[in-house]
Amino acid sequence: MKKTILSFITVSILIIYGCAEKNENINYKGNPGPLIQNAYIKLPLGAVKPGGWLKSQLEAQAAGLTGNLDDFWPDLVKSAWRGGEGEAWERGPYFLDGLVPLAYILDDGRLIEKVKTWIEPILVSSSDTGWYGPAKNKDRWPLAVANKVLMQYYEATGDKRAIVVLTKYFRYLHDTPPDWPDKEWRGVRAMENAVTGYWLYRQTGEPWILETIESIQKNSSDWTTYYEKFPWDSTASAGEKIPIKGPEGKTAHVVNNAMAIKYPGLWYQQSMDERFKKAVFSGIEKYDLNHGQAGGRFSGDEHLSGKSPARGTELCSVVEFMFSLENLYEIFGDYKLADRLELLGYNALPGTTTPDFWSHQYDQQSNQVLVSVAKRDWRSNSDYSNIYGLMPNYACCLANMHQGWPKFVESMWMATNDNGLAVVTYGPSIVKARVAKGKEVTITEETDYPFNGSVKLTISTKESVRFPIDLRIPGWADSVTIKFKGKTVHVKGGSNYKIKDKWENGDQITVEIPMEIRVEKRYNNSLSVLRGPLYFSLRIDKEYKSVKINYDNFSYKGSTDWEIYPKSAWNYGLLIDKENIMRGLKFTENPVGKYPFSDKGDMIWSADSVKYFASTGEAPVVITARGIKIPEWTLKNNSADVPPLSPVKPVGDPEIIKLVPYGCARLRITEFPVMDIVLMEDLMKPGK
User: Fold this and answer.
1) Which residues are registered as beta bridge partners of 659?
2) DSSP 661
3) Which is it for strands 40-42 and 413-416: parallel, antiparallel or unpaired?
């Protein structure tokens, strides 16, 4: 009897103190037991809206391919997903995975009506077995994407039919034998289903959903061991031993890698095993070490391909890596994940599309001095992969690229477990959410970030309310200055800073993030120049040429295929003093225009005049530097050859060169050879 009473007291104490220590958000659904509590909680679609230049960016996307593609591309016009007789696999769901969040984030009536023409046939397609979608599709892979579409649609509309369809489908997965072969996309990407699965469990609490996810994890590709052992390192790349075909080729496929980096992290929520958390961060480190590229990406043209700046990265992998990081930040809350997300969103994403979002590349390069239909040293892609167009190489990116910007906006703010809000990535935005005990507040973020580091947050509330605000402090910043309520604090970079206070209507928080210029060592001791989260590239004068290639671009509105040719020299080495970076460097901030990631000479589609015009505006930031031409650095197989080993002996006189953000540069040098400044200064002495 005494033992029973003692056990009861012990359990009671544990419950009381456990509850006291654990914060739990009462406004938004975090992970219920037995899942581990995540660091943050994703807000529903529509809670975060873009402002300023970011709104212009999404409006350009809506006016470009995303808002028009299903009006003229046959794979979408005739899609079986919308009731037609055409393509019934991944392209419809891929397209919707970007269209749905874009439509509801912008509150764009035209796009919302488009969404409905797709969603209604999907909702009514659900069968008694739980299977849904086009009758002729028998593959689980496109349904993994469609699941995410219905998840977002429900968050935006509250249409409970979406929950019914998803619940029936996950019950189907639960009650049927595992079908996740390593040789098929549905097998290597099987844990993509867990994104929606865990969300569905939060909505319904059905325990069998966790059984379904566990079955998928245990019967599909083992990405955790892959990241622990990582077979496709730089040695394998140099020896051309990275496979292209078969099941092993699928583990080297760049998009699979971009998706899979989140899979151990997703499973960590249920397993609570630190092994899976370690696999995520180990995997990112190994990508950087063996295949890292400027702009936060890793190479893959179409398979992992090493660190040379001549190697390409497929656009699909950029948007999928971004989505993985958004999921992982929600789980772990590690600032490094959001730092990387900004690098991708503010460099690699805009750098591989035209500013008006009417054309995209399949493969982008760090050192990209010629955009043309030509043979390049891709691992497995075609000669068309480098152009900006409608459908260069495979059409998967044309369908899938649309998710990048909308999901980035959607994840800029998250809810905290202590009933507050967290800034994940910086940029002009408006978040409207419930805090504290259900009080609704709006926070407006005014900033031109990433083009400068001044951020102002203004709180709007009907009544005073106490709630915390978490600010991510970028790891590249030495110290960030935060001012609020008459207080000033200085916070070291690489952390999350929590402000706990009582807020009145109109209260403001200002954040000053110093944008010091810094350099990063890259291939052959070359250097890349960064300021804040932006990489900077050589501005190369350019000429756009519209081309007709081996498919129909349909010439619908702005749909065009572009080759781009250099009209100025590109083979410059950088004259820079690594002991005093700012010596010889100057930067100028310019107004951010309607097309934020454009520069002089970019071709922009005008819907009003129904033709293209050449932009005359300056990039938002321009850095003036000094460089020296390196005559022996030339093209190799239609790409800039690898940078000569630095330091390079100077031959010739220094010239003024200009650098613009990577995302503004359709032609670019981003990994610069470095001139031997000691020898240069010696040669410039009188009498030499």
Assistant:
1) 538, 623
2) E
3) antiparallel
Peptide bond preceding 34: is omega within 30 degrees of 0, i.e. cis? Answer: yes
Contact yes or no for 122/154 (Cβ under 8 A)? no
pLDDT band at 20 (very low <50, low <70, confident <90, very high): very low
The residue assigned the tokens 């495979």 is: 394
Percent of the chain with pLDDT over 70: 95
Question: Residues with Cβ < 8 Å from 138, sequence gap 6 or more?
Answer: none
- Calculate the alpha carbon distances from 124 to 131, 158, 172, 317, 398 in Å: 11, 17, 17, 32, 27
Looking at residue 434, what is its pLDDT? 98
Using one digit for the tens of pLDDT, what is the confidence trace for 315-371? Answer: 999 999 999 999 999 999 999 999 999 999 999 999 999 999 999 999 999 999 999
Assign 202 to helix, strand or coil. Answer: helix
CA 670-673-674 angle, to 5 degrees, is: 120
Q: Count other C-beta atoms under 10 Å from residue 243's C-beta.
A: 17
pLDDT at 184: 97
Phi, psi for 50 (deg, rounded to 5): -80, 155
Report, in angstroms and rounded to the nearest whole number, the Rg of the chain calculated over CA atoms.
25
Quote the CA–CA distance of 123 and 91 in Å, as a whole number.
Answer: 17
CA distances from 349 to 46, 315, 319, 565, 624 (A): 22, 8, 7, 21, 24
Assign 579 to helix, strand or coil. coil
Q: What is the pLDDT of residues 524-548, one digit of tens each?
A: 999 999 999 999 999 999 999 999 8
Would you place residue 415 in the very low, low, confident or very high pLDDT band (cuts 50, 70, 90)?
very high
Length of the chain: 688
Nearest to 618 by CA among 599, 633, 603, 601: 599
Please answer whether residues 575 and 630 qualify as being in contact, where contact means their C-beta atoms are separated by less than 8 angstroms: no
